[in-house]
Amino acid sequence: MKILVVGHGGREHAIVRRLSLDSPAPEIHAAPGNPGIAELATVHDIAVTDHQGIIALARDLAIDLVVIGPEAPLVNGLADDLTAAGITVFGPSQAAAQLEGSKDFAKSVMHRAGVPTSRSVTVTKLQDVEAALDAMNPSGRVPYVVKDDGLAAGKGVVVSIFKEDALDHAEAALSAPGGRVVIEEFLDGPELSVFCISDGTTVRALAPAQDFKRAFNFDQGPNTGGMGAYSPLPWIETESVLDEVVRTVAQPTVDAMREDGTPFVGILYCGLSRTKQGLRVIEFNARFGDPETQVVLERLASPFAPLLLAAAKGELDQAEPLRWHDHAAVTVVLASEGYPKSARKGDVIGGIEKAEEFGAHIIHAGTARNSRGELVSDGGRVLSVVAVGESLEDARSRAQMAISHITLPGSHFRTDIAQRAAAGEVEA
């Protein structure tokens, strides 16, 4: 089988790495890829925005399956263009990808499908924001939650105890042409991420993970695209929770999308809060999440390529049951100086071989080669260090030890990824 993975980040490197571990492994190509992906696949210098270039490449290589990693090309209709060209693709259509492209759209689908989620209101005018905040936070209950309606790379959300922060974020979002914000009630409870693979009819849930959005230890600092993740979650009963997610969230959503004439084929990322009232959806994404993909795929024991192909061809009900390794997996993100507000680029990265001596592997997210062939930073989240262990504490210790040997001027990483879960301090 020949597979083309579209994208250049950590998620795509994790996908390529897991595909390479299949037996037999498919022939893997990537566009545009990154230095880490280039060690496992043939990379092609074609941007994710160049739909015709990707189509031509897939045809020239006689690609059997295109896997689209990032959200932007999905929302911009790359899957539609590939399908129209007769190319099999794993990833939702532009219409279906609106589950991520518009939080207002996602809320409307959830409400129609009876999916449990938070109360919310969509606002398009600045003068309506304060009243909406008060409605979602009666009697001054905090924190306030304000979300950009569109794509924001995981950083379009403000959760703050200060109304001024919420108002400022709403003003910034509404000042853009066509700007809208979704104001929600805060969901109190530990969060988890569940990737559900769908062929438009059948749904299967992958192993759950928990990610860490805040930039600094103990959930301090601004939101990021994700600073680390772990799997499994010792504070839930996995099978019953996954059954509940499929039954109450993913299957009703996939059914509603199909009934609307916009079948969802790909990964429905369910971001959830385990509240005292039960599971509630925080958000949907239309693709694998980063950095959760790194730990979820690290634990996948059954073949990956046939699973993606079955979903893309509408044959997920015929795919073999999913199998999982018993080990725990933890990933920790190394971020560049200034992230998430800015990203310093061009600094030389060292110590990767030393880090790998601790049994970890390194996922490239924002890296490049300079004119001298040196590996340098090229984004906000630069690397993910992934480690496994018999226990969560073992995995997190290995990950922390490994990442401490990587050098990148001004970089930072969290040292508390999975710490509370490993200590049994997360209450479901």
UniProtKB/TrEMBL annotation:
Alphabetized InterPro entries for the sequence: ATP-grasp, ATP_grasp_subdomain_1, PreATP-grasp_dom_sf, PRibGlycinamid_synth_ATP-grasp, PRibGlycinamide_synth, PRibGlycinamide_synth_C-dom, PRibGlycinamide_synth_C_sf, PRibGlycinamide_synth_CS
Catalytic activity: 5-phospho-beta-D-ribosylamine + glycine + ATP = N(1)-(5-phospho-beta-D-ribosyl)glycinamide + ADP + phosphate + H(+)
EC supergroup of this enzyme: ligase
MF (Gene Ontology): ATP binding; metal ion binding; phosphoribosylamine-glycine ligase activity
Pfam families (alphabetical): GARS_A, GARS_C, GARS_N
Keywords from the named record: ATP-binding, Ligase, Nucleotide-binding, Purine biosynthesis
SUPFAM superfamilies in the record: Glutathione synthetase ATP-binding domain-like (SSF56059), PreATP-grasp domain (SSF52440), Rudiment single hybrid motif (SSF51246)
BP term (GO), one: purine nucleobase biosynthetic process
SMART domains xrefs: GARS_A, GARS_C
The protein's annotated pathway: Purine metabolism; IMP biosynthesis via de novo pathway; N(1)-(5-phospho-D-ribosyl)glycinamide from 5-phospho-alpha-D-ribose 1-diphosphate: step 2/2
Domain annotation ATP-grasp: ranges: 107-313
Enzyme Commission number(s) of this protein: 6.3.4.13
Co-factor requirement: Mn(2+); Mg(2+)
Family note: Belongs to the GARS family.
Name of the protein described by the UniProt record: Phosphoribosylamine--glycine ligase
Species this protein is from: Helcobacillus massiliensis
Lineage: Bacteria, Bacillati, Actinomycetota, Actinomycetes, Micrococcales
